[in-house]
Design brief:
The structure holds 2 protein chains of 2 kinds.
Chain A: H1 2-48, H2 52-67, H3 70-84, H4 92-117, H5 121-129, H6 134-164, H7 176-187, H8 191-221
Helix pairs in contact in A: 1-2, 1-4, 1-6, 1-7, 1-8, 2-4, 3-4, 4-6, 5-6, 6-8, 7-8
Chain B: E1 9-20, E2 23-34, E3 38-42, H1 49-56, E4 64-69, E5 72-73, H2 81-85, E6 88-91, H3 103-113, H4 119-132, H5 148-160, E7 166-170, H6 178-193, E8 197-201, H7 205-211, E9 214-219, E10 222-227, H8 229-234, H9 239-248
Parallel strand pairs in B: 3-8, 3-9, 6-7, 7-8
Antiparallel strand pairs in B: 1-2, 1-4, 4-5, 9-10
The chains are: A mainly alpha, B alpha/beta.
Chain lengths: ~220, ~250
């Protein structure tokens, strides 16, 4: 009972911090996925081009990013980026965002690649046999079908990113986990604020995954 | 039927070779097909029938040899194959109708996109074609709702919408339920009657015998025997042809 009472107290007193943290988490997640959807798609298309060195470069990028921890990447960009690009006067938030995007781009690249590959090759052959060139085939036949494979996976990537932004609290950029640290510092309580943050994360991802399930059903329902 | 075979040569193939890795599938095919001619390609699986057909519009790029379409060497480096493919309709074993487009759009996409027709002209022709194969009521549906036979009929008129000079059929009835084979063969027969130059890879021996001007028996990557249906089916010379026919014509 004591636990619930303290939790209620913490919530009523610091709800604005939690909500701000929630907003920052969602904001960062959305920005990251929006940016890396574009960059990841470009990389996926570059990976398909016939110029070999470009393919290798993209493959190396994807493998390196997927093969190293995101926390390491966060440190790397947080400390290196301001030195490399001093004229931009990047904020801490910007550095963390870049790290998240660089990380997410690699995963999105794989999602898009898999989505395109999953489209039956017969669709391409049929389009080419009618005289469409490869670009027209991609635009009118392959990509519209690939999007259906890609969208749900992209939303899952968003959920993953929402959770991964918690690592960015290392640099106190104001998302949910940072708020926990702040409140923990003020109140010296661990369990109660942590539980609240946990519930917020859970509700957020739970609702998102339900929405994705709905979206998937909708996508399958069309064309029927 | 053989009258048409005296027509102008539309496809000529010279010493065609194709390998997939270490697998040598086509081992030097030299042949020609005349305008208006109907050619069936029969033979055992792995004999190179489909590969031969797919080489004709360069869905498979041959390792060596030449393919002439209307006297143009389409295997030459500087040739824009997309232009020539517009004149060669292809129908696949697995239909390959565009799943993301309605039945109508399946047909009008290519003619409109490749500027052969305006949307209005294409829509008009689309209705005519669908009516011809009994699918007019499906025009706004997605292919998911169609049966195999309906999909294949759609695939045939999709190819016809480009007004091709030759139609290539790659085992068009092999993936169909038995009760749907007839409706597809009927459409092909109709097409053949209209004088369309046709190359068809098939396992439907009776059909091949009935519609063909010439039959190629392919085995081991070469055309092992060829001739009129009567010659190939009733008086085969090659022991491999005899063996194959004895297995399929029971």
């Amino acid at each position: 009972m004591e636990f619930l009472r303290v939790m209620a107290q913490v919530w009523s007193k610091y709800s604005h911090l939690f909500l701000h943290g929630l907003w920052m988490t969602v904001y960062m997640g959305l920005l990251t996925v929006a940016i890396s959807t574009v960059t990841g798609s470009i990389l996926a298309l570059l990976r398909r081009c016939t110029f070999k060195p470009l393919q290798w470069l993209v493959t190396a990028y994807v493998e390196i990013i997927r093969g190293t921890p995101i926390l390491l990447q966060l440190y790397f960009f947080y400390f290196m980026l301001p030195g490399w690009l001093p004229f931009l006067e990047l904020s801490e938030f910007a550095c963390v965002l870049v790290a998240c995007c660089v990380n997410s781009t690699a995963y999105v690249c794989e999602i898009v690649r898999a989505g395109i590959q999953a489209v039956d090759n017969g669709q391409t052959e049929a389009a080419r046999s009618l005289g469409l060139n490869s670009t027209q085939t991609m635009i009118h036949i392959v990509i519209p079908q690939a999007v259906k494979n890609i969208l749900p996976a992209l939303c899952n990537e968003f959920i993953a990113i929402v959770k991964e932004t918690s690592l960015a609290s290392t640099f106190f950029i104001g998302e949910l986990m940072t708020q926990f640290k702040t409140i923990n510092g003020i109140t010296y309580r661990v369990l109660e604020p942590l539980t609240i943050v946990g519930i917020i994360y859970f509700l957020l991802t739970f609702i998102l995954s339900k929405l994705i399930a709905l979206l998937e059903r909708r996508l399958n329902a069309s064309e029927r | 039927m053989l009258v048409s075979a005296n027509g102008k040569e539309i496809i000529r193939v010279e010493d065609l070779h194709k390998s997939f890795g270490s697998l040598h599938v086509l081992k030097g095919v030299t042949e020609h097909i005349s305008k208006g001619e109907v050619v069936s390609v029969i033979g055992p699986s792995g004999g190179g029938k489909s590969t031969f057909l797919r080489c004709l519009n360069l869905l498979e790029v041959p390792n060596s040899g030449h393919i002439y379409f209307n006297d143009v060497d389409i295997t030459a480096k500087n040739v824009d194959i997309n232009i020539h493919r517009q004149k060669m309709g292809m129908v696949f074993q697995h239909f390959n109708v565009f799943n993301n487009l309605t039945v109508g759009k399946n047909i009008t996409l290519a003619p409109v996109l490749l500027k052969k027709k305006t949307q209005a002209e294409a829509d008009e022709m689309c209705k005519e074609l669908l009516n011809r194969v009994g699918l007019l009521d499906k025009i706004d549906q997605f292919p998911k709702k169609l049966s195999g036979g309906q999909k294949q009929r759609l695939a045939i008129v999709r190819a016809l919408a480009m007004e091709p000079e030759v139609m290539l059929f790659d085992e068009p009835t092999s993936a169909l339920d038995p009760e749907m084979v007839g409706e597809v063969l009927f459409v092909i027969k109709d097409l053949v009657k209209s004088g369309m130059t046709t190359v068809i890879v098939t396992h439907e021996m009776g059909f091949a015998k009935e519609i063909s001007d010439r039959v190629f028996f392919m085995d081991g990557g070469i055309i092992a025997e060829k001739g009129t249906p009567d010659e190939v089916f009733n008086h085969p010379q090659n022991p491999r042809t005899k063996e194959f026919l004895s297995k399929v014509l029971y």
